[in-house]
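Quick sanity check, ABC transporter permease:
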Amino acid sequence: MTVVKTSVRNFLAHKGRMALSAVAVLLSVAFVSGTLVFTDTMNTTFDKLFASTSSDVTVSPKGAAAADEAPSQTGKPEALPASVVGRVEKSPGVKSAEGAVSSMSVTVVDTENKNVGATSGAPTIAGNWTENDLRSMEITSGHAPRGPTEVMVDADTADKHDLKLGDELRTIVVTGDLRAKIVGIATFKVTNPGATVLYFDTETAQRGLLGETGLFTQINVVADDGVSDAQLKADLAGSLGGTYKLQTQKEMADAGRDSVGSFLDVMKYAMLGFAGIAFLVGIFLIVNTFSMLVAQRTREIGLMRAIGSSRRQVNGSVLLEAVLLGIVGSITGVAAGVGLAVGLMELMSSMGMELSTQDLTVKWTTPVIGLALGVVVTVLAAYIPARRAGKISPMAALRDAGTPADGRAGRIRGTIGLVLTGGGAAALLTSTRAEKASEGSLFLGGGVVLTLIGFVVIGPLLAGFFVRILSTVVLRGFGPVGRMAERNALRNPRRTGATGAALMIGLALVACLSVVGSSMVASATDELDKTVGADFIIQSDTGQPIVPQAQKALEQAPGIAHVTEYKMVEAKLTTPDGKTVSEDLAAADSTYAQDLRRETVAGELSAAYDKDSMSVGDTFAEEHGVKVGDELTVAFKGGESAKLKVAAITSDDVSVDKGAKYTSIATAERYLPAERVPKNVIMFAAAEDGKEKEAYAALKDSLAAYPQYKVQDQTDFKQDLKDQIGQLLNIVYGLLGLAIIVAVLGVVNTLALSVVERTREIGLLRAIGLSRRQLRRMIRLESVVIALFGALLGLGLGMGWGTAAQKLLALEGLEVLEIPWPTIIGVFVASAFVGLFAALVPAFRAGRMNVLNAIATD
């Protein structure tokens, strides 16, 4: 009990010194808790939505796309005959059945050709209004559509785009454009995560979305009273046989959950990964805090040992303080995490994915996980300082000898650090020489971990070397004040190394990702310059196929030498070795050989566009023993089987169309029914000589009525790629900012405790003439050199990781190494400002010390 009282008293006595460490725990736990709350809330939102939109049993075609699959490239969903509705109604256990039409291959624009559909990754869905829709929606304005010129929209879309009754919308589908006026607005009864929903009358939906009447995409079945969904499904299976796909409400909800589950999992584990980095950085802060607190309480610990406290009790006292710190930081972190989740929901709403706080989900596991992580990490971080405190002998402590310096331990530490760093460097080097990316990735991961740990362990040794170099460059111009700042940074290399290592981790990741991102852009740009011969590329950001009316407008644009169609055809290939594999064939016009320059290792690529011919990649050819002149049996999905002759084998040493198998559009059309021929996923165009600018403008004008597609020349395409990678990196940098914030807190905490530790020394310096301004400058310069030391280690380590990653990814086409020097130099310079900022409060407190009181301090 005495140990507990002592620990609580010490914790409260040093609560100011513990504050920044508590903030580090708070931030780390908040990120974990916020991530869990946010993903649980999204799961709740989607669960409610999927449960409310599904009937007791849903009947759909066997080939219908699953919830997590892309819509059909034909632009039309799979359908079943309307006559099946009658068969379902006669089945036992059925109370009612109705046919429904639904398609996500649509784009909706207003009278100014502005896209009013979903833009956040959520779908735009068009269909017919059914009784089943009343489960999730209610008409709050106007009425349901009654004819071909009427449409109803969801309230969220109407609010977002200021739509009202009487406004005209144009729905772009593969069968043509549907023009209709808004006659009704329906409101979701549950949260709509961002989808745009349009309703037509049944006949208009069938004709517009499916191309003919008498078809439905699914049948919604309601069970009789007392009949379970499982029983109803079994009865329907008996009535319909195995011709159609049957799913209960739960199965439909599970399928919908799975469709968003992968996205949520990626987001969840990525954010938890960054939280782990923040925890790792926080460990350095906590270790430093407790190390300095133990050093400052040496005499107190000696007195405890002298009056009978054992090493175990002293050790336990320090660890108990860590437990208290972990509890306080974790509890506030969990609360902050809920706030962070709400903030993320607001951010997602601003981007188009609507989430309601009414669905806010805080499971009991979230605070338990947050509290456990916070306490465990804090106790582990405090273990070494606590163990060191227990080793202090009573006589040494009473003499104020401080913690014993162990030269042998320092040498062992240095040796271990060198071995780990050397092993990590060897692993990174091995990864760059791997013949397969899968093999090299293991060495790359191991090298990253080993070099990181090695740099952390060897940090005190590196501090003595690099701080002197940095001081020569940065501090010498400040005279005696600069030299004192240098000596202060070198006074305790272990502390300086740990403080710099906290900043090193975040900046190493920033540098690594910057190198990889820049190399991706440079490699892609280089590849485009080498291979892409087309002047213009036309495609949709959302992957929508190019509708015939848009294609016709493109082909009629003036100044165009040729337009190339490019379709993806699903098929099964039977190779000479007897194996059957599912593959996509790229069906294109023969002009595609001009638009994309591909090196062949055998045969002529132009011959692949002849009748009943094709090409394969050299990787596929090697795996299956395929050579020029061989015939492959190709079973086209939804069509016939054909014997296609291999006319060319292309090199897979590319990043554009790597592994593609080419055939002609005429060949695909020969073996596929007209309604099963896919629409173009992308198109290419070449301008007439000297008319590039005119053709570019003409193509853009031709697609003005179709905002879902964009025309890009090669410059646009490269910039778009650069912007996409830049946006991704900015998100990652933002998340890494949490680790950097924790590292900055570590610098602040180290300086603040260092000022307390050197109170008497500061008083003496002031007494012999050091001004307050010089004192504050000394502390700021010490902070700057520590921050620059951490930045130097981090950026150097990160560039090493990034270079090794690029060399490994060169096997996958990332052949150009580019070091983003402006970013690297900018981060290094910014680190100096980080050091200045971190020193503001400690320097201010030091400057306000009373000289006589400081000198009198023990």
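Posting the structure with no commentary besides this: The chain has five domains: 1-55+250-404, 63-242, 407-457, 460-532+713-858, 545-707.
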